[in-house]
What we know:
Elements: H1 2-38, H2 40-48, H3 53-67, H4 77-94, H5 98-115, H6 124-134, H7 139-148, H8 155-173
Amino acid sequence: MVTMTTLVIILAVVVVVAAGAFLVFGRKNGGHGLRRRFGPEYERAVARHNGDTKAAEQELNERLKRHGSLDERALTPEERERYLARWAQVQDRFVDSPQQAVAEADTLLAELARDMGFPDGKDFDEQSDALSVHHAKHVHGYRRVHAAKRGEGDTEQLRTALVEARGLFDVLVSNGSDRSVRRDGHQHTDKHHHAEGSGTA
């Protein structure tokens, strides 16, 4: 009887210890997993919550629940060529009308994301949150052009926003891969502040 009681107590202690370890290490590993998945978006969420890591991770987990199962629809070759042509027009327009160009880039990205199965863009936060789940490394550029279209920033800042937004465009137009379709690289610009890149694969 004593032996059985002792065994039950030992098993109970093991269960409690295991549960505690799961909560501690599971929480820690979950945080590392979110940081690894979201990258700079993780730091942005922490900053939005004034350094409250727990609240930031809760927000990111909610994004995963809402948008993690979303399946991107691949573009047809015709759609891809159409978007590449539109982006080339945006870049050409930047030389004479930087503000108009970033506004058009913002619209183009919203439509491209919608056509690939993301939320339709009527709610920018919802669409950008969904994009952050699947393309966390590039969504910042989209946010930059969205802010820039409201007139935030000088010509150089608008150019930088457009160049960063091109990162998301490249990934999406490549049907979700990280393979860049640019031929000249992320930082190449000419003396006229033209966001370079022909937009062809």
